[in-house]
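Deliverable D5.2: sample structural annotation.
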Amino acid sequence: MTFDKTLPENTTKIRNGPSLQRSNFAAMQEADETFLPWAFNYADRTPIGGLNNNPDGISSAYIQYCKDDAAGNPEMFIVDENDNVTQMTKGTTSASTTGVTFLPGGILLAWGSDSFSGNETVDLTIAPYNFTTVYQAYVTVIKSTTSNQNAFVYDINNPAGKFKIQVTNTNNLSWMAIGV
């Protein structure tokens, strides 16, 4: 079935309307590519729960949908016309001095502040996220009380999902890392 937005017309007799409406309704149910709505009204709807798999893409459109992770928590995704799926949300954002958030596309942004001395390895296993690859890491001295205080990142992903810092004459640091 194809969707025809001109049917039923204002002049269509009521007795002829249902047959015209049925073909348009079938096109919506089948997600026919001729049905390209401007928007949906989601008010006053009964939620049906998350999907078990990804829906197929529709030509010239993006589909936003929600499905549950293994623990039953909802996660939001978008699928494009080529069936490429982008994950938009995962878990919850931690809003404290040490935390992590999930960015669209699977990128993780983690931050923290702590006391370090000498050579340290920062472990990016922050529940519910476990970094497997660190793309960039940054470290900054929080408070300078003596001269020649510095800190720098000298090794990323050795071991995987962690980064190492070198600290001289300081121990109060703030760090940030980006990865997956």
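Annotation notes: DSSP finds one helix and twelve strands in the chain. Helices lie at 17-29.
The annotation will be released with the project's public dataset once the embargo ends.
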